[in-house]
Amino acid sequence: MYDFFPPIFEQLTPRDREVAFQRLQPIAVAAGTRLIEEGDTDPSLVIVMRGELDIVTGDTKLGKAGAGDIVGEMALFMQSMRSASVVARADCQLMLLDRPNYEWLRHVEHPLAFSVELHALTTLADRLRHTGDRIAALAEGTDIAHVAPPAGFFDRVASALGSGGLMYPGKLDGKAILGAMALFAGVEPSVLEEVSGHFVPMGARRGHFLCTEGETGNDMYVLASGSVDVLVATHGDKAEHVAELGPGAALGMCSLMQDHHPRMASVVVKEKVTGLTMDRITWAEQSNRYDKVGSALRVAMIRALGKQLAFANGELALHDMQAKSRSALMRAGAGMEAYGGALGHEDEVPSYLQGME
What we know:
It is a single chain. This protein is an alpha+beta fold and about 350 residues long. It has two domains: about 5-110, Jelly Rolls; about 120-355, Jelly Rolls (Sandwich). It has ten helices and 16 strands. The chain has helices at about 15-25, 100-105, 110-140, 150-160, 175-180, 190-195, 255, 280-285, 290-320, 325-335; strands spanning about 25-30, 35, 45-50, 50-55, 60-65, 70, 85-90, 90-100, 165, 200-205, 210, 220-235, 240-245, 250, 265-280, 340. It is globular and about 65 Å long.
C-alpha cells in the first residue's frame, strides 16, 4: 500500500499496525489543498505518507513536512486554536488521527497512542529550546539580566516574609490534588491513584524559594494550598513581580524536559504552601512507561508546556509590537516556568519589592 512506514510505526508489531490503520483515516489531497487553517480548533493530527506540505502563517512560510512527518499533533491534547495553516505543496497521501480514535487507542494501551505522545513531547522540547534561546538573545539587548538575584535581594525577601525553609505538610490526598487539575482531566481514578504515588508531598514556609532564576532546576511542583509570587530579576539588586499563583498552579516543569535548563524566573512562597513535587529522575522513569500511568504524565506535561509556550510566544509578539516592551519580555520568561491562570495578570506590587522594581 505504501512505500515505507513512518518512524512512528516502526516499533509496532504487524498486529498493532493492523489495529492502528483501522483507527487512522487515509486521505488523498491534491497540490494546493489547505488541510489545516490557522485559527481553527479541529482536534486531529496528520501523518504524511507521501508528498510534501508547507506550514505557513499569513504569507510567511514557517517550514515544511515530508514523508514520515507528523503535523498538528498538539491539537489532540489541547483545546486551542491552530497556530499555523498547512497547505499541500504536491499531491499527498496522508493518514489522519482524530481525538476520539486517539482516546480509544490510549484506553486500550495501544503503542501508537504512546508513540504520538512521545513525539509531541520531543516537539515541545525543541520549541522550548527555541523560545528560551530567543528570550535570552533578546534580553541581552535590554535591561533584563537572567541571572540569579544577588544576596541583598534574598536578605530583603527574608526580612519581609521570613527565612523560608521546607516543612512537613501533613497528610495530603495526592489523588484529589491532581484530580482537581485540568492537566489530569480524563484520567481514570485508579490510574490517578498510582500517578499520585510517584509525587512526594511537600510544604514550604513564607520566604522559601521554590525556583531561583538562573539556577539549574531539577524539580517540578504542584500547589495544593497557599500562594507564591513569580519574580523576574532586572539589573543589579532589582526584581519585578510578574504574578501571584495559588492552588492548581504547576511550577518548574521545563526543568524536567531539558538537561541543565536554567530557571527563567524565581518563585517565592508568599503564604505557606503545601503540594506535591517530582524530580527529574522520577519523571524520566515514569513518563517513559508504555502504559496509562506514563500516558497520564506525558499528556499532563504536554498540556502544561503547550499553554506555557503559547503564553511565552504571545508575550514575545507583544514585545516586538510594543517597541520592545521590557514587561512583555519578562512575562515571556516567567511563562517558561509557571503554569497558572493568573500568570500575566496585573497584580499589586508586594511590599518587599517596593523600591526595587
